[in-house]
Write a structure and sequence with these properties.
This protein is an alpha/beta fold. It folds into three domains: about 1-10 and about 200-285, 3-Layer(aba) Sandwich (Cobalt-precorrin-4 Transmethylase, domain 1), CATH 3.40.1010; about 15-95, Rossmann fold (3-Layer(aba) Sandwich); about 100-200, 4-hydroxy-3-methylbut-2-enyl diphosphate reductase, catalytic domain (Cobalt-precorrin-4 Transmethylase, domain 1, 3-Layer(aba) Sandwich). It is built from ten helices and twelve strands. The strands form three sheets. It has a four-stranded parallel β-sheet, with helices on both faces. It has a four-stranded parallel β-sheet with strand order 3-2-4-5, sandwiched between helices. Helix 5 links the parallel strand 6 (about 120-125) and strand 7. The termini are close together. The structure holds iron/sulfur cluster.
Length: about 290
């Protein structure tokens, strides 16, 4: 049985950069307090915690006066940075540069749209940290949409500036844009700007993953149980190859999956470390 690792798998650039920043601090013996889970992957988080990383919430900030706090790749709203400054906390800012650029673009759109009454609409997961950061840059008045159910939240007779959380699926975003345009046309309004804000590290993975899923008898997908990106990329695999299985670590593997398989492909979410994918592949080889 041949076991192949997806060459496109492993951390995305933003997460990789954030982890490297944290590791450099930890190796220098500095305590690192991270605002929220750095990556939606328990195995990687446990490893960082064993090196000294402490995950904190916004409620913990007042007790950390004078300390160093890390902002993860998802970013934070402006209010958080203000609070950190007021508390004299040093910020270790690991916001992904792509997210920073998107926050700036949303802020510009928000400020220029204030007079025209344009609505800032964000296609994303409600409650997701990146969405909170994006919304904060729109004065916390952005309309968060996830499906057609949310159409009632928008006024289709007014201008709309549409953005997407970086890790959303490109196909879903396109459908959302088309649906909004259709409703706006019905309302006699065409003032819609759809901003291309799905990250290429995510949108580029889906087509490559389709081919990879078709090339193997069984696909083992490694991802965190709370990874939005993992759930989406796994659905791409499953739609191409019914013998696709989602695992968090080697303990979830069932030997029965490989009974009639000649080739197994191992892949993962953009929040899954390359070393873990390699570990899973080695484990399957030994089976
Ligand atoms: S998915 Fe893209 S935008 Fe989001 S953290 Fe990774 S590289 Fe940055």
């Amino acid at each position: 049985m041949k076991v192949t690792i997806d060459p496109e798998s492993g951390f995305c650039f933003g997460v990789d950069r954030a982890i490297q920043k944290a590791e450099t601090e930890l190796e220098a013996g500095n305590p690192v307090f991270c605002l929220g889970e750095m990556v939606h992957n328990k195995v990687q988080m446990d490893l960082l915690k064993s090196k000294g990383l402490k995950v904190i919430t916004h409620n913990d900030l007042p007790a950390l006066k004078g300390q160093k706090v890390m902002v993860r790749a998802h970013g934070e709203p402006p209010e958080t940075f203000k609070q950190l400054q007021e508390l004299g906390i040093t910020v270790l800012n690991a916001t992904c540069p792509i997210v920073t650029k998107l926050q700036q673009k949303i802020n510009e759109s928000f400020l220029s749209g204030e007079s025209s009454g344009a609505q800032i609409v964000i296609y994303g997961k409600p409650g997701h940290a990146e969405v909170a950061g994006l919304n904060g840059n729109a004065g916390n008045v952005a309309i968060i949409v996830n499906s057609e159910i949310d159409f009632g939240k928008m006024d289709f007779s007014k201008p709309i500036r549409l953005f997407s959380q970086t890790t959303m699926d490109a196909e879903g975003y396109q459908m959302m844009g088309e649906g909004i345009l259709e409703r706006m046309n019905e309302a006699g309004n065409t003032d819609l700007v759809i901003n291309k804000s799905v990250c290429r590290q995510v949108s580029g993975r889906a087509p490559a993953l389709r081919s990879f899923a078709n090339e193997h008898d069984v696909i083992v997908f490694v991802g965190g149980s709370n990874s939005a990106n993992g759930a989406y990329l796994f659905s791409v695999c499953k739609s191409e190859n019914i013998n696709s299985f989602y695992i968090s670590n080697t303990e979830d593997i069932d030997i029965k999956w490989f009974e009639n398989a000649n080739s197994v492909g191992v892949t993962g979410a953009t929040s899954t470390p390359g070393w873990l994918i390699k570990q899973v592949a080695e484990f399957i080889k030994r089976l």
